[in-house]
Structures
1.
Amino acid sequence: MSAIATAAALTLPISFTRSSKLFKRREAKSGLRLRVVALIEQGGASEGRKDPWTTLFQVEDPRSKIPLDKSKFSTIDQALEVAWLDLQYCDWKARQDVLMIMLLHDKVVDVLNPLAREFKSIGTLKRELAELQGELAQAHNQVHTSEVRVSTALDRLAFMETLVNDKILQERNATDSDATIPLPSTSTEPSSSRKNSSNHRRNLNVSGAIKPYNSRMKNFWYPVTFSSDLKDDTMVPIECFEQPWVLFRGKDGKPGCVQDTCAHRACPLSLGSVKEGQIQCPYHGWEYSTDGKCKKMPSTRLLDVRIRSLPCFEQEGFIWIWPGDAPPTPSIPSLLPPPGFQVHAEIVMELPVEYGLLLDNLLDLAHAPFTHTSTFAKGWPVPSLVKFLTPAAKLQGYWDPYPIDMEFRPPCAVISTIGISKPGKLQGQSTRECSTHLHQLHVCLPSSRKKTRLLYRMSLDFAPILKSIPFIQNLWKHFAEQVLNEDLRLVLGQQDRMINGANVWNLPVTYDKLGVRYRLWRDSLEQEEIS
């Protein structure tokens, strides 16, 4: 497999679309150096003066070759072809990112050029350098993500190659040819299946034992802990989709996520320690890097051993992982509060409920005057009508009569902005009519079928002095636990009834709109996997 990967890296096809535009942009700005670039683009008599690096970026964008429908393949060869094209795209994207970094580096050199400095003020130079630093940081992040995607694509290609070597191709072709015979007798099944699917969506039946999570649910970026909780010499053990993992920082300070099980004797690595960017098993001292490779085996010969690792990234104060088998998407969604807000609290809790039931609760505000009578909704009047207003088929909107905007952000986040006119009071028909606001982020990580890891971030657009009050974090955590405990006793009761056969979505009404749309979104993933 390593030979195939090496060959892939050296023989991918070629285009100069993006890099040509970037070179032309620079050609319009400066002189002698860019005239050399023009000679490179023209070729011909100047062939001998070409920069050898330019051929590295002359790679064609392979997306036009990828089939539109990649969901079904009649042969393993077709599946291999698509996987190979995915790998070519990852390579093309990585080259474009590197090219962007090189061009930005040249722009930095131009800004710092002594001749250019004579005609620019210090303020202008500082501003240009700051902008370039931001662009460089973004380009470096894109390169890191591309590396992760290439690694995942190679793993998929290796798996498909194994299938071919095991003669799965011949067996599947034989099965397909046999399956073509009884097709007329089964032609009515798709319409029946669609009817059942339609009834399921209309009835919204959520009852019975909690089912294992389908694989499509795993193909998302999941924030699993706050950056502030992952120090250089510490680790954070987590569960995700019923699998144990452990987070720690490598020698370069970047986070990594490996399975929380030593390859030697299955001892939990989270019981050990982090030593110089490697996690050490407490049983026999085996040490692993952030990519899962064993780097040290005391008292014996070092073997080529590796444990599973997940794509792991740090952004906006969160550590993110990609637990699915599909290649990671190139970008991570932003969960930052709106401009003008400051983060005041970041809290992590482990809750003994299925994450879908917790999301149902968070997406429902109509229960507040009845459930949270000892905390934030104490004294709230009971409205004659509660509605959630939202554009058609959207996962966001606002509550009436409460000045609260709310959004479900797939796969597991609830974002809300609450308008506050007076301390502890909700007044006004919308958040825009309120002078001060509280912004909340709830991330519900599916640890297991009966356990959720909750990440809570609270931000305010007023009273920045609160951040400097001693032990204020403890106060916020105490208040958050009080609110959640009011909900937990109800959700745990729901979970018990649901497992015993009761439908927790038996009679949805108007104010259940956002929760229903979350359930339909989740059902759609399961239906796609079945089909």
Note: Residues 4 and 158 are 9 Å apart (CA to CA).
2.
Amino acid sequence: MALYSAAAAVLEGLERGDGGIKTLVYNSRFPHVRQLYALVSETLRYSPVLEKLLAGAALLRAEKKLPPQLAKVLVYDLLFGKGLKCGGRWKALARRHRARLEAELARLKVQQKVSRNEDLLAPARAASPGASQVPRYVRVNTLKTCVDDVIDFFKRQGYSYLGKAASVEELRALSGKKFLLDLHLPELLVFPPQTDFHDSLLYTSGHIILQDKASCLPAFLLGPAAGSHVIDACAAPGNKTSHLAAILKNKGQIFAFDVDTKRLATMNTMLTRAGVTGFQLAQQDFLTVDPGDPKYSKVTHILLDPSCSGSGMVNRVPREEAAPSAERLQALAGFQRKVLSHALSFPALRRLVYSTCSLHREENEDVVRAVLQERGSAFRLVNAFPSWPCRGLAAFPGAESCLRASPADTLTHGFFVAVLERHGEGAAAPSSLSAAAENPQHGEGMKAGAAPKKKRRKKQRVK
């Protein structure tokens, strides 16, 4: 049963946009990762067929307590895999419906005029557009090591370091065992697409974090100074939280919220492995957090990455998804407006980053515009990262201050980021890190393509 439950949990994480398949599998704590990866991959490959079988056999209507993703995993192994070898009560449940499922499978084959199970799959199903061109981004965890030491480690592993990238085109041209320092983010290394470091000592020890470049933007642009009190409002799976801790240098306090117990448990393990201290995890809906609670009276920075459609996520595994309906987008946007407005009500707040992995204007520019109109002149949009090539859609005056990302233009997942700052009396100056991001001259003194000047830190060295 543990295998099927773990596979269902990974599928649910993919659906929420928590990460890629390998990251979710390795973070699942299931002991046999190859077995789990294979089951998840094959279930995803057969997903359109499985959905037709479940609908035709009315399995989910008959078994209302059976979670949909668990149903997919069970039916895959029952009809297309090696047969149900474990599963407890769910195994017995699936076997009760075996005759109906097999009849539905036979009907589907007749309908599509095929004889083999494999022929039910759509021909040449490939990973989603952009998946093959997005590089492998590796964020150096400066709580445990430094960029120079990680570069040296990879050199000893046979990789060739090409220095700092001068353009996105240089990232696009990466191949073989070559890597670069990113041109925008100072602690991000870039490797060719599909490079896998899940078994690397650096990853398993928490010295590096496998995190898409666009996902690194929110914490980088929030840029809280060491000692700040920060809220990560919708925190799991925790990559952005660990990035915040690194920026804070583990000095200060992070309050991280999520409603899912299992995701928080996984997040706690991940943060501990990354060497993060000074954080408090709470299984709580951020909307129920009281801004007037004295515990949060010193919170000056908030990172808000709420639930969204996930339409910007680039899938490295073949998958078919329908575009979200207008009703679904409006429901998400309503929640996003509510949670952003709530975040801006914290009395000491100076700076907030709102981000989504969505491509839809309804969840992005429209949400920011509505909340800024509601808040009057209390907060303003910051023109963060002027050198970033993709800006917000022209939905309202000043929307170009927002950032967008896409596989085609920035070689990342699709993403949206807006930086809001308290306006007027009592507004604080941005931190040195965020000020650097807002200054287009920042870093221009460094020769293009050159390696950064070495700064040796007294960190734990990886050998």
Note: The radius of gyration is 23 Å.
